[in-house]
Amino acid sequence: MDETENNTSIDSVEVGPSSPRVVATPRIPIPVMMRETPLSTKRERQALTPRFRRPAPRMIKTVPQTRSIWSVRKDTTPQLVTPHGPQELESPHYDRANTQTFFEQVFQIDEIIGRGSFGEVFAARCREDSRLYAVKVSIAPMRQHSMSKYREAESHMIIPPHKNLVKFYRAWEETDRLYIQTELCEQSLQQYCSVQHALPENEIWNIFVDLLEAVHHLHSNDMIHDDIKPENIFLTKHKICKLGDFGLVINLKNPNDVKSAEEGDSKYLAPEVLNGKPTFASDIFSLGVTILEAATDLDVPSNGDAWHQIRNGQIPERFFVGISSDLRVLIEQMINKEPMKRPTSDALRKHLSIRTRLDSRRRYILSMDMRDGFCNLMSSILVWCMAFLSVVFHPVTRFHEAINNRRSELCAQFVNNQQHTPIQTPETSKVYSESLTGVALRQASQISPFDFSDDENPPHSQRRLFTGPVSRRLNFDDEMEDEEQATCSSSNSSAIETAEDSLSSPKKPVIPVTRQFSSRGTPKSARRLIPSYRNRSGSRDPTHHAGAGDSMNSSILDQERTDRYLRMRLAEQQLDWNDHSNMIDEAPPPMSCPPRIRRSLRDMPRMPVLNFNLLDEPIKKGKEKPVVEPAELRQRPMRNGLKSLRSRMASFQGSSGDEN
Ligand SMILES: Nc1ncnc2c1ncn2[C@@H]1O[C@H](COP(=O)(O)OP(=O)(O)OP(=O)(O)O)[C@@H](O)[C@H]1O
Ligand SMILES: [Mg+2]
């Protein structure tokens, strides 16, 4: 085709000594199909074709089931593949009795990271050392007695390890499938290039140098890789290139390998291999195409004219824009049609551009290895330390926990045992209980702490008054039971007033009594216990019709209660507060008691013993005087401690004496 007729084509622009005329044409994008040459970059192809997005890899928990046309022997025991033949495979995590495969038992499978013609590749964490590996599993069960059965595994074992080759760990066979465990890399060069497209030149040189080292290592060991391509080249997290997939590797020392040599990927295939056997030079050709693809983002053709165009050295100039002449020359030499004209790996290493980079690259890889080794060492030391510390401090933490629990148990026990309220007046109960619970009395002057009539769940400190041994100890006699207990517990002294109940019986003398259970100020829990309250609330209930017997009983009960109350008040009045011989001698609180409670107990005056005999004395009818509740007591402000109670009692005594 005449170039002058198509001067709008980019590919028609020829620059260089071979072209006499340089035609500077405007760079109008032309669809690939209309171009003179079918070669294009991968980015251009992506722009023309609908974008295909590979679906996210599926999380696989087990090795997928596959079918085979081959009838296979189900040998379930895993066999380690070694250069000296199969050997028994052992692992502390493998249980023969378990129906799962060795792979499923010893590895925790993360995801599928790749699929090839041979098999599927899984990223899996080995339970033996908790590290991640790539495990390649053959898709189809392999034919029995197949000569090439273990080729990839054998190649891995034969090739001496090299920093630019994917590291091999082990291979085993189970249920006629081959498993190859190798080092896990971050991604393949093909994946990296498909994202980055044309890579910067320094990265290209690094890749070139790494791959050249790998190829040189293989060639110097009489091995031909035969499948060099970006899909079989892997990048680590430090961007170090590693050559992998030794499925087609030819060991020149093994005549069987040479005989059964297969062609690699046609995209990267040297032209002479179509009619012959792979050679070192064919590897160099594949490496040259790989570097060309990485450097120019060329969409490498697998066949057709474009395939021949590359092999004839007719790569349009535009692909080399921005690439140094050194790199371009080396690439062109490597993809030379004539295998004899291609440089050997050794000759390439001696090239000035590569030789200068080899040393720095070696140092970089060494430093990264050392860094990784150091990080691994530190992390394993850290894990050991953490394990050690957790073992050492486990008993200490348990001990501390146990002591704390015991201490709180003892405190609770002590508080319960120390509750003593021999004088069962609302005032004393309140003072004592509040001193225990730490509720300040000044708060009580504003809001009665016991007025939670509408609250079924009073605060914890208040709830204590109605539970436990306090109320149980208040039984002066069996009959009093709930009523008296509740009277003593319920310390709403503002409830002292003339009893409405006593007015219900006109025959009885009008005696001022304590209204024991007012609907306001008496906790519901206490109200429910008390028959008088129940009767009262029952009479309010329109559905409740109390009979004559009921009212008689209740008036007798009220009378009794009033009598008892008056006797109690008399007993209180006759207390000798200065008689210390009559005091209860209590042991000091133990040290396990919280200091706050200990302090309040220490500051409290000792409680006098109540003379209960007074209660048993027969009541002298007519002699008893109605107790008039002093206004001071009724409107009593809630003040601190027994001191105020004592002074009030004294004044009350005095006032009653005056009356006498
Ligand atoms: N060690 C590894 N680290 C990370 N990814 C890997 C590793 N080995 C394989 N892969 C991924 O799995 C894909 C297929 O792996 P591999 O090339 O070994 O399989 P294959 O069956 O030989 O395929 P093909 O014959 O097409 O080359 C690779 O392209 C790569 O994406
Ligand atoms: Mg492969």
UniProtKB/TrEMBL annotation:
Catalytic activity: L-threonyl-[protein] + ATP = O-phospho-L-threonyl-[protein] + ADP + H(+); L-seryl-[protein] + ATP = O-phospho-L-seryl-[protein] + ADP + H(+)
SUPFAM superfamilies: Protein kinase-like (PK-like) (SSF56112)
Biased composition (Polar residues): 1-11, 486-505, 650-660
EC number, as in UniProt: 2.7.11.1
InterPro entries (UniProt xref): CC_SR_Kinase, Kinase-like_dom_sf, Prot_kinase_dom, Protein_kinase_ATP_BS, Ser/Thr_kinase_AS
Keyword line: ATP-binding, Cell cycle, Differentiation, Golgi apparatus, Kinase, Magnesium, Membrane, Metal-binding, Nucleotide-binding, Oogenesis, Serine/threonine-protein kinase, Spermatogenesis, Transferase
Cellular component, GO annotation: condensed chromosome; Golgi membrane; nuclear envelope; perinuclear endoplasmic reticulum; plasma membrane
Region (Disordered): 1-24, 449-556, 621-660
Membrane topology type: Peripheral membrane protein
CDD domains the record matches: PKc_Myt1
A GO molecular-function annotation: cyclin-dependent protein serine/threonine kinase inhibitor activity
Record carries keyword Magnesium: yes
Cellular localization per UniProt: Golgi apparatus membrane
Residue ranges of every copy of the Protein kinase domain listed in the record: 107-354
Binding-site residues for ATP, renumbered to this chain: K136
GO BP terms in the entry: embryo development ending in birth or egg hatching; meiotic nuclear membrane disassembly; negative regulation of meiotic cell cycle process involved in oocyte maturation; negative regulation of ovulation; nematode larval development; nematode male tail tip morphogenesis; oocyte maturation; spermatogenesis
Keyword Membrane attached: yes
Basic and acidic residues biased stretches: 621-635
Superkingdom: Eukaryota
Family of the protein in this entry: Belongs to the protein kinase superfamily. Ser/Thr protein kinase family. GCN2 subfamily.
Protein's recorded name: Membrane-associated tyrosine- and threonine-specific cdc2-inhibitory kinase wee-1.3
Species: Caenorhabditis briggsae
